[in-house]
Structures are given as structure tokens and as C-alpha cells.
Amino acid sequence: MKICMIGGTGLLGCEAAKQLIAKGHQVSTLALPPLPEGAPIPKEMEIIFQDINKWTDADIENWLTGADAFVFAAGVDERVEFPAPVEEYYHKYNIAPLERIFPICKKVGVKRATVLGSYFAYWSKLHPERPDYTAKNPYFRSRLAQEAYCEKMADDNFAVDVLELPYIFGTQPGRRPVWVILIEKTKMMDKLPFTAYPGGGTAMLTCRQVGECICGSATRDSKGFEALPCACYNMKWRPFLKIVYNARGMGANRRILYVPVWAMKLGMIPFDMDFKKRGIDSGMSPYTTADVMGEDIFIDTGIAKKLGATEDDIEAAIFDSIKLSVAAYEGKAKLVEMKGE
């Protein structure tokens, strides 16, 4: 098969390319320079340095002609800051590229597409009794809108999978990890004899497992639209933070106290004030973030395994992600920033 990808040199796209090429498939990707130094990007992958927004429809059509599948491994998540209204930026980076590319995919006969989405869409659909999840969180709404567009475009001749991905751990040499924000937030409690955190937990994957899921989705035989919640691990915050503090060089015995959601909401007041002061429109309301982090947002591991995800060392992936995040926070590593285009 020939697979065309946007984001094939990124953390997740690169892992997908390695999996696809290992199975004998041909991969071509659009990417923005520079490439991160030392990244294990497969030499067999065709890399076209191009901003999709600067290509004509004819250029895109020429690139997609002859492809069997398209993978969208780009976009931004809730941790990227934007001015108001933030939903315009989520549409620009996560939905508008699909609105342009999907009709061309169908025109030239591409049979399927895989889009990297978010497990917050899965959680919103799972809990319709909690309308505040979507009403107060622009990021949740944007991911649901992304899925709605994918479902609208899917048919018997053009299958579309949205992988609803949870927290992802692992590193790509030379690229700035998304977990620097966690270092910033946990350091605020370093002088305390404990860390206060909600009592929930989250589903997880390693970046290699995401690559395996992308490969499985892009090459499987299916029709129509499917939203696929993917996870290989489910972990409470306490054991997760033990790994974080160990990676930060503070040992694995840091005391973690679970606090009620209302208490965390009080702790979110400074963040909310800071956003307003800087003109930042938060993709997730700081106060409903507390609600979300108090939940066990867990996912059954069956779908990821069915797509081909294999066992990996999640604790090592978390440890490595935090070590690189600390280096990035301290300015000790030369890293390429993640891009949404």
C-alpha cells in the first residue's frame, strides 16, 4: 500500500511510518522544517517539506493520486495556548486541513483515512449526563466537531477512523515534549512536604503503541466511520506522579495526597487569573479540568490490541518523557517545537 501522511516526522507520525515501512508499505509525508536532530526518521520515507496551506488543490491532488490511505498525524491539543476565541485555532489546525483534503482523497480514489483525535471526545460521548464537559471546554467541542466531520465524509468507498488517543508517553530525540507543562505545575509544590492532586487517573499509550495503532487502522479493511478509543494502560495519578518525581531526581517516595475536586478548583484560581491577564483562551476550563482529573478516565485495552498494539514499558516511557521535559524546562536541550500545521 501507499500511505500519504501529514505529520510523518513528528513523534507519533514517525512511529507510524516505522511500523508501516517495516510491513512493506510505502510512506510519503508532508513536513515542516527543521527536522529534530537525531530523530530516528526512516530513510525509506519520502519527506516533502511543504506547508499544506501553501499548496494548491492541484498540488494536493497530484500528491494523493495513487495513494491507498491518508493519515492525519498533525494538529494541536489542549496544552497549546491561543488567544480568544480558541475554537478558531482548533478548527484551523485540527479540522480545516481535513475539510480541504478529504474531498480530494475521495476524488482521486483514496480508500481510507486515519485521523488522530482525543479521548476527551470519547469521554464526552460516554457521559452525556455531564453537559459541562462540552459546554465549558472548547477543546472537547472541537474534537467532537472533528469526529462529526469525519463521519459526514465517510462512506462505503471512503472509510475514516478517528483514533481517540489518551495521554501518550515517549520521546523523539531533538523534539520538545508536551509534558513541560507538567513540570511547571508540579514545581509549584516542591517546597511542600507533599503534592496535592485529585484522586482520578488516566488511560495511556506509549508513542510506539500509537504508531502500531495508526498502522493497524491505515491498513485494515473496513467501511464507513469509526471512532476508536485506544489505550494499553490505565493508571491512577498517585503511581504516575511517583514516576514523575523519580524522573525529576526527587526519588520515588514523594508523598502524594489526594484532594477533593473542590479543593483543586480553588487551586486553579491563579491559573484562571493568569490566562485572563495574558489574554489566553483556555481549551479546557481550569475549573472543569479539576472535575476531569478527579475522574478515572480509563479505556478498555481491547481496541488498541486489535489494531496491533503490543506490550511496552510504560513506566520507562513516562520516565524518559519527564527527563526530557525537565531538560527542556531548564533550557539544557536543543529541541524543535511541535507545530500544528
Question: Care to describe what's here?
Answer:
The protein is an alpha/beta fold. The protein is 44% helix and 17% strand. The strands form three sheets. Strands 3-2-1-4-5-6-10 form a seven-stranded parallel beta sheet, sandwiched between helices. Strand 1, helix 1 and strand 2 form a beta-alpha-beta unit.
List strands and helices in order, with pairings:
Elements: E1 2-6, H1 11-22, E2 26-31, E3 46-49, H2 57-64, E4 69-72, H3 86-108, E5 112-118, H4 119-126, H5 132-135, H6 138-153, E6 159-165, E7 167-169, H7 180-187, E8 195-197, E9 201-206, H8 207-219, E10 225-229, E11 233-236, H9 237-247, E12 256-258, H10 261-267, H11 269-278, H12 286-293, E13 296-297, H13 302-307, H14 314-329
Parallel strand pairs: 1-2, 1-4, 2-3, 4-5, 5-6, 6-10, 7-9, 8-12, 9-13
Antiparallel strand pairs: 9-11
